[in-house]
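Progress narrative, Year 2. Work on Myosin heavy chain-like protein from Actinidia rufa advanced from sequence curation to structure prediction during this period.
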Amino acid sequence: MQFLLSLQASEDAKKLVNQERSFACAEIESARAVVQRFGEALEEEERISQTSGKQELEELLEEVQEARRIKLLHQPSKVIDMEHELQALRIQIREKSIISVKLQREVCQYFI
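Result:
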C-alpha cells in the first residue's frame, strides 16, 4: 500500500513538473514573440524616422533659403523668428536621434 502511494505521488510529481515545464515554454515563446514584435516595430519606426528626417532636412533647407530671401528684403524681425524656428527644429531632430539610439540599445539588450 505504501509503495502504491509512493508510486502515485511520484507520477503526480512528474505530471506537475511536465505541466510547469509546458507553461514555462509557452511563456518563453510568448516573450520571444513580444521581443520580435518590438524589434519589428522599432525597425518600422526607424524607417519612418529616416524618411521623416529626410523630409525635415528638406524643410529646413527650404526655410534657410526663405530666411536668406527675407534677409535680403531687409526684414530682420522675420529672419530672427525663422532662426529661432530653425534652432527649435534642430533641437527636435537631435532629441529624436537620441531617442532612436536609446531604443536601438534597448532592443539590442533584449536580443542578447
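The chain is about 95% helix and 0% strand. The mean pLDDT is 80.
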